[in-house]
């Protein structure tokens, strides 16, 4: 992507949801052997990249970055260089499923607890009848199970691998096994399977339009307050950061 803007040294493409889906659709259609890693970038990952060189390498080598966190969108806006829109992991997954239903893509779901994993798979199968959920596994596995899961994904060869382990755990796992997964596209989607399964409520549309989804989540999940503390720190550091050309 040539049209990019940097946030704390990380180039983020100026693309819309429609652009993103077009890129992913092309990758699935071309069926290349190389895995295409999509990262939905948020302030936590961006901050961690400043001191975690391995994570920074993962982000640099990703096939596509999207601006997930509202903090990233707001910083660009305050700098007078706005992004066209926010492309969140949850919204992107829904759009991917809609596109997959039209084109008969296959998926593997990895993450969430066992009841949520089962429910998410059932909801997807019912809501998108042309989508094939080839396999799934909950996100609480040990090293032995991890190896078995990777072997299963490799054998099933899904068009899309959805990893709901939270960031940056999802990004690390995808990167670690990128040469073994045998999928077309892999994406970390945070808690999106919880939302699809109905375990966690998504903020109403009017909250989303006001960019207040973070507050809705905090009200409904007070335990998230520690994570939210990073937002003001991120905003200050990002605004003061001297980007190199």
From TrEMBL:
Alphabetical list of Pfam families matching this protein: Glyco_tran_WecG (PF03808)
Domain of life of the native organism: Bacteria
InterPro entries: WecG_TagA_CpsF
Keywords: Glycosyltransferase, Transferase
Protein name: WecB/TagA/CpsF family glycosyltransferase
Source species of the chain: Paenibacillus radicis (ex Xue et al. 2023)
